[in-house]
Amino acid sequence: MAVYVYAVTRREHPCRLGGLTGVGPDAPAVRTLDSGELRAVVSDVGEAIRPKRRDIAAHQAVLDRLMADETPLPLQFGYTAPDDETVRQVLAERADGYLDALAGVQGCAEYNVKARQDEGVLLRGILEDSPRASGLNEEILAGDTDPRLPLELGQLVAAEVDRRSSNASADLIRALAPLARAYVVHPPTGEDFVNLSLLVPRDGEGAFLDAHTGLTREVDTGVRTRLTGPLPPYSFVP
After folding, report:
1. Are residues 96 and 119 in the same domain?
2. Is the peptide bond preceding residue 230 cis, with omega within 30 degrees of 0?
3. What is the pTM assigned to this prediction?
4. Are residues 140 and 211 in the same domain?
5. How many C-beta neighbours within 10 Å does residue 137 have?
6. What distance in Å separates the CA atoms of residue 80 and residue 44, rounded to the nearest whole number?
7. CA atoms within 13 A on the CB side of 198
8. Left (φ > 0), alpha (ψ -120 to 50) or beta: where does 198 sit?
């Protein structure tokens, strides 16, 4: 039977999995497979897994339980292997890499920071700081129909938005990265200009959260941040 894989841990991890049920319509028991110094947390699965709410919650519940004792290497939702022996073989073949990765995330959790600019605050700031942008805007509002004016204003504003977003992104990284063991910059999506994952030591979470709170007080910049965590270290799995 195929097996669904939740995470890889060190063999010494207590894996207190009692009472948990796994993904799939049959809600199978969650169990472990050992190979050398490593352990995989798995459950049996009889069909293709789709991201249903109940299954996503079951996946996360297993990882939350593991995180309570020691940081695992989490696998993304939906990872399956043909059978137990395949899982053990992968653990054996990749043992050195998994052990190094586990050492790297030990005692840490992932936090994700996304940020976007408040468009109104951003535009007002550009018009206040750029005499050329302000002048173009006034000409347009006064009724000048020259089609070159909105084109030039749009290009000027777009360039300034890019510059300010780049500076704000660098400021966020500069403020938060020193409080993390590692960080990963993901491509932003939607209106966000930052999508940053940080590997934060659990004994340093207070300082990290204080630093983030300090950033959110800077409301005049128009930067709005969203913090998610603590999470399993998905972004730091090789």
Report:
1. no
2. yes
3. 0.83
4. yes
5. 19
6. 9
7. 28
8. beta
